[in-house]
Amino acid sequence: MPADSTTQGQRTAHEKSMATTHAANEPSPEQIREHGLYEKLGLTAPEYEAVVKRLRRLPNYVETGLFGVLWSEHCSYKSSRKYLKTFPTTGPQVLQGPGENAGVVDIGEGVGIAFKMESHNHPSAVEPYQGAATGVGGILRDVFTMGARPIAFLDSLRFGPLTDPHTRYLFSHVVGGIGGYGNCVGIPTVGGEAVFDESYRYNPLVNAMCVGMLPADKIVKGIASGVGNPVFVVGSRTGRDGIHGATFASAEDPHEKERSAVQVGDPFLGKLLMEACLELMETGAVVGIQDMGAAGLTSSSAEMASRAGGGIELYLDKVPVREDGMTPYEMMLSESQERMLVVMEKGKEQVAFDILEKWGLQIGEIGRVTDDGMLRLYFRGEVVADVPVMALVDEAPVYDRPTEPPSQAELAARKIDEDELAQRIDSLLQGEATAATGRAERTALEELLRLILAHPSVADKRWIHRQYDTTVRASTVVGPGSDAAVIAVPGTTKAVALATDGNGRYVRLNPRVGGAIAVAEAARNIVCSGGKPLAITNCLNFGNPENPSVMHQFKEAVAGMSEACLALDTPVVSGNVSFYNQSRGEDIYPTPVVGTVGVVEALSHATKSGFKQDGSSVLLLGPPDAGLDGSLVVQLLTGRPQGDAPRFDVDAEARVQSVALALIRRGLVLSAHDVSEGGIAVALAEMCVSGGMGAIVSVAGALQPSVAERIGWLFSEGQSRILLEVSQDHLDAVLTAAQEAGAPCAVIGRVTGNSLTIVDTAAAGAATSGASRTAGWEPQSEGADVWLSLPITELEDEYKNAIPKAMEH
Amino acid sequence: MKWAVVVFPGSNCDEDAAGAVRRVTGDEVDMVWHTTRDLSEYDAIILPGGFSYGDYLRSGAIARFSPVMEGVKEAAEQGTLVLGICNGFQVLTEAGLLPGGLLGNHHLQFTCGMVELRVENANLPFTSAYQEGEIIRVPVAHGEGRYYADEPVLDELAMHNRIAFTYQGEVNGSVRNIAGIANDTANVLGLMPHPERAVVEWMDSVDGRRVFESMAAYHAKRGVVHAG
Question: What is the chain B residue with the closest CA to A480?
């Protein structure tokens, strides 16, 4: 149905008039200025004055609301834009970089992979189930909007300690909400992370990533072009929910805000909307399409018009609404879920009506594309807002906020306190005082390994992903629990590898290196799974940007990420920023989360992290490291993160990754696992538990190292290291390839038995040296110094039961 | 052999089911929209997994009123093979084509993962390619999979060998560990696990293939009988 003639006629009458009308119950433009009401709508005094200057008149209530949401941090990226511009975003593999609803990379065979990650932290803190569910729904729409069929979800989560009942409530409801939405829409949730740390107790992080596939030459954009083309709102009706969601996410403590700002999701509608929109886009009659996410109709219409460099006018009487009496302000700011704004080719309106009817969804033709650069809103025959699109979107303020590096004193306080560490180790040993000397040390190390394996950040996450449908779509080659998920791409012989990563502890200690590590680790996870990393998306979760230390963290983290992206050839193609993650005055750890997509050229390359074959060798690819900077073990021993970020060298990283991928592609690797949180000891334990096989690993270093040195070898989180399982037949080929590539690589052990045993062969005089190609140590070797030895069943017990036990309370 | 996969609004394993049939049998598969009433041209009908009509009321409770279910009932009466997987099983019980019902899992959470099943009856048109007593691995993914029926019904099912699959171990609290059952004429089968997700090596199990192979074999044999 075309816009009716009354509206058309009245538009002509009002064409040149300024928007001065306002509903009787809304404050007048003068009152807005006089009483500073713009602040409630999200504008600061200088921002409001900038609006007045730009419009050359006082904005009315609706217009002030439009500027309030579009100039919010959430929509405008005003504090971050300066830095986001510095991300590398190009490469031959990039089909669509940042600026659209999602980025797209080319995996060959004419297939593009669209993906994006988005935060839903603030809503999840207030209403965890719906907050998480709508986060999933929102990112789903961002991806299918590109014309892509969604094929996977991943979720990166951060919570406080599970000993806190409120954390358990947030955690279980967030997981429930993610499953509730994702399972219903029929997209497998195949990976992600969950980290538990005091820093996130009052401000959990919920970052959802969606990945979709599409024909590489059929990317659909969020653009409102073609003068006269009709504009539709499709999907759900517009209600009063979620008003101020965007401004709510952009300032203040979420706990002080009203619950009504949180939206409610309807996954069934989301599924129908996805099918309907994909079918609609398939017709080729869609000019542009965009999700009505944050700031709903306002941001979708203004951003689509902005991308086309044109204007748009909307007849708000035609918006399908849930209840009578909704004002233009409410309609424009509603964040009711499961709605899309669609621009169709003129004359193809019926195509849209037919498809939406088939799926039983609402559709309203609510406006048309113009070329006058204005966002003009009509309601009951009057112009209720008339503002330049450029002013709303492109001219949103950009802030160069002050930054402040940590003081020398602060940096000094971060150094590892060796005395404190020694003291803690002593008391750990005292705890084992009943055991004989030597035996006490071993028991202490075993105890530490158990402790770390049972730490919820490290422990098995099956409690979480058992609640997600991980195999719907019947294309999951490797599901959750390995380094990266591997999803077959239908219609091709390839798969995609998907991983998320980000360690707030590292970034807190050294934002630049921590940022780089986030990119490197996510890429390393992809490589360990047999994929070539192609590009990243990210969620930059930070504290209050008005705090100069937070801005310093942000600036440095972005710089570090950019450096790693360049070195690893993984440009940034999409992403989002979430500031104001703070509660009770404390900023969270700066937590940039990276989501990486890689291509697995053949399904046979897909590699898991569990040991596969008795008698094979265990190799450490990458530099040895015994530093404890930033390690979880130090945090567990002393109660706080200490030191610098773990050792990281981006060139070494690139070499290690390229060797590992080449070896996997040559079929020389049985299993692979990257060394990350908890160090080599934890990585080995995980390989044992996932594979159900034991290993004997020999350390050959200094004679009789101290307990602290042993802890360093076992639990260092030094980067650029991968454990490889290689059969005897391929050992020479692997070692030679690593040597030729200049990547350190050594045999450190052998897959055997039912225990994980780590021994120091230097202590046994006759034992083989570290350069040995085979692990020469045998359990019966005389004089060998056993650092630790634990049956797989015990490791498994700690690893698998930690989270279920914590959740039993 | 001509297969139909019914698509309700909210079905989400429809493509997986069709894909499995094509992969395993090479047969033709039609996707049939829920408004279709006549299914007489099909030799086998699959009701796939998903959340038909959102399943906000009770799983399958709305789907049973859809036009396509009239066609499914008629076809079932004619002896056409009807396979309900997960949500499809729920719809079949709601529609009265299978006895009992599926309740929320006893642990109150959605559960997803590979489970072991015991083939209780290998003489059904859906199970003939298995051995009786064989343990197979097939994934589950459901929030409401706890099979329930009263004792007389259970005894009846047991007595007539209508229990097709049972879980090895506790999965969702189903009575007698029931994972799948057949109707009294053995041409309708409902099961909570997803055989369509276990048909290729990289899926970590190929044990689901034989459900579709059994159906194809049954049809082939029946065709010969009819021709004769």
Answer: B113
A473 and B15 within 8 Å at the Cβ level: the answer is yes
Rounded CA gap, A768 and A775, in Å?
Answer: 8
Q: Establish if B56 touches chain A: CB-CB under 8 angstroms.
A: yes
Q: Is residue B153 part of a domain?
A: yes
Q: How many domains does chain B have?
A: 1
Distance CA A245, CA A337 (A): 12
Closest CA relative to residue A179, chosen from A544, A480, A423, A621: A480
What DSSP letter does each residue of A663-730 carry, written as one string? Answer: HHHTT--SEEEE--TTHHHHHHHHHHHHHT--EEEEE--SSS--HHHHHHHHH---SS-EEEEE-GGG
ipTM of the complex: 0.96
Q: Does B111 touch chain A (CB under 8 A)?
A: yes
Query: Which chain B residues touch A603 with a CB distance below 8 Å?
Result: 202
Return d(Cα A654, Cα A662) in angstroms, integer. 12
What angle do helix axes A61-70 and A296-308 make, rounded to 10 degrees?
A: 70
Which one-letter amino acid corresponds to residue A4? D
Task: Please give the span between the terminal C-alpha atoms of chain A, in angstroms, as a whole number.
Answer: 57
Mean pLDDT of A641-645: 96
Of B55, B109, B141, the CB nearest to A471: B141
Residue A778 has which token pair? 């045998």
At A478, is the pLDDT very low, low, confident or very high (cuts 50, 70, 90)? very high
Answer whether residue B152 is part of any domain: yes
Chain A residues touching B55 at Cβ < 8 A? 184, 268
Structure tokens at A603: 């399904």
Q: How far apart are the first and last CA of chain B?
A: 18
Residues spanned by the domain of B195: 3-222
Would residue B228 count as lying in a domain?
no
Interstrand relation of A230-235 and A149-159 (parallel, antiparallel or unpaired): unpaired
The string of pLDDT tens digits covering residues A445-476 is 999 999 999 999 999 999 999 999 999 999 99
Report the alpha-carbon angle A458-A463-A464, nearest 5: 85
pTM value is: 0.93
Determine, for residues B12 and A184 on separate chains, whether the beta-carbon distance falls below 8 Å.
yes
Residues with Cβ within 8 Å of A380's Cβ and at least 6 positions away in sequence, in order, are: A317
What is the CATH classification number for the domain harbouring B159? 3.40.50.880
Q: Is residue B147 part of a domain?
A: yes
B110 close to A (CB below 8 A): yes
B60 and chain A in contact, CB less than 8 A: no
